[in-house]
Amino acid sequence: MREYVRFTRSRNMHVLIGVLLDILDYALVTLFVIVLLCIFVFHFAAVQGDSMLPTLQDGNQLLVNALDREPQQGEIIIINASSVGLLHADGTPYEVEGLHKVIVKRVIAVGGQKLDIDFERGIVYVDDKIIDEPYISSRTNEPLMNAAFEYPITIPEGFVFVMGDNREVSKDSRYGDVGLIPLGQIEGSVLLRLQPDFGTVN
Predict the structure, then answer these.
(1) Closest to 181 measured CA to CA, from 199, 160, 196, 166
(2) For residue 22, what pLDDT band results from cuts at 50, 70 and 90?
(3) Strand partners, 78
């Protein structure tokens, strides 16, 4: 009887060890997948400044989709503004040195779209239609100096035009040191605001 009890306990111990090893295996695989996602797919970014008020506030923590390098109109993106695009008189683009800092802005127009801004009324047109901008906190004002363009312009392929939601303080595509954003300078699109409160940003 004692041998049977000892044998049963031994077998149960082997089963328990097998279950624990399976759990550890699944946990390691899950951790490995999470690390890969964080490295190659999802990034985290922190907002600095007030240029995206009221949508984003200084200190907000963001989850970024690093695979989205060709964003659509209206998306919020993270930009490595080391080089920017300006336009020759004939509308062809050329690149110059940028701000050399990471910024967060909203895509207003993409390659192939016509963009016009009525600064007197603070209205933005894309493809001759007024765009609905319920997210802005101030009217679209004209830069007092270092303006990048005379409008209307057609956005060249491979570039996007961006602006902050807080137009009065935002340094964005209206200015020569930001200009048009080459797609290669986009680090990804913002998926979610993680802190201080969880939520979408568009």
Answers:
(1) 160
(2) confident
(3) 104, 188
- Tokens, residue 86: 């300006």
The pLDDT assigned to 129 comes to 97
The pLDDT value recorded for residue 90 is 92
Say how far apart CA 67 and CA 42 lie, in whole Å: 8
What does the block give as tokens for 89?
């008189």
Active site residue 105: yes
Sheet strand arrangement including 129-130: 129-130, 123-126, 114-118, 153-154
H or E stretch covering 168: none
Residue 68: CA count within 13 A, CB half-sphere? 18
| Beta carbons within 10 angstroms of residue 190's beta carbon | 27
CA 181 to chain centre: 13
Which single residue is written with the structure tokens 């490595």? 80
Q: What angle do CA 147, 151, 153 make, to 5 degrees?
A: 110
Neighbours of 75 (CB within 10 A): 21
- Spatial separation of the C-alpha atoms in residues 56 and 35, rounded to whole Å: 27
Residue type, 199: G
Q: What is the pTM of this model?
A: 0.80
29 three-state secondary structure: helix
Catalytic entry in 82, 83, 101, 105: 105
